[in-house]
Design goal:
182 residues; alpha+beta; Aminopeptidase; 3-stranded antiparallel sheet; globular
């Protein structure tokens, strides 16, 4: 993993997507409780392979090469158990076009069997700390459906504050904000 960007978050690592992650990402995003909240991530295995190979891995390299000025880039990181190396979810940052600027968001998903263990909170905190310490980001956003109780709890535990509501694709979302100074 020497040539793969990682963030150590204690029990887990955040690391760049790899081709070997395609099946796990596909399986994760095929879970109804994931695609209900992240419908744009649903795909065929062939689409996922194409996206990881041709967009997500090169996009990560571009993002990392431009630090601290990350502009509109995306960083897509796997959540990996440090002890076993198992891919258990993802934690990403990118531009949420439906929000007014600054509109960099944090988004994530984790396999059902790894929920309620604190891994998602560790991942979000790890990514947030990395972004605030190493990039020109001064504000991060999260948009969460009101009925996604677990995600609302994670965002609150990570220090995000409810700014209000935003409608995205005809659905009401809570809009959370975290600033560097907070």
């Amino acid at each position: 993993m020497n040539d793969v960007f990682t963030i150590d978050c204690g029990e887990i690592l955040l690391r760049e997507f790899r081709i070997e992650d395609v099946a796990a990402i596909y399986e994760l995003t095929s879970q109804p409780e994931v695609y209900e909240f992240l419908p744009d991530w649903r795909s065929t295995i062939e689409q996922r392979l194409d996206w990881v190979t041709n967009y997500e891995i090169p996009g990560n390299k571009d993002f990392l090469a431009n630090i601290p000025s990350i502009g509109n880039g995306w960083l897509k990181l796997g959540i990996v158990l440090k002890e076993t190396g198992e891919f258990i979810g993802f934690c990403n940052t990118g531009i949420k076009e439906e929000l007014s600027g600054p509109n960099r968001e944090v988004a994530y998903a984790i396999f059902k069997q790894y929920r309620n263990k604190g891994y998602t909170t560790l991942a979000v905190k790890g990514l947030v700390n990395y972004l605030f310490e190493n990039t020109d980001s001064d504000q991060l956003n999260a948009v969460v459906l009101p009925h996604n109780i677990a995600s609302n709890k994670v965002i609150a535990k990570c220090g995000f504050r409810l700014r209000g509501n935003v409608e995205i694709e005809d659905q009401l979302h809570y809009h959370y904000v975290l600033t560097k100074k907070n």
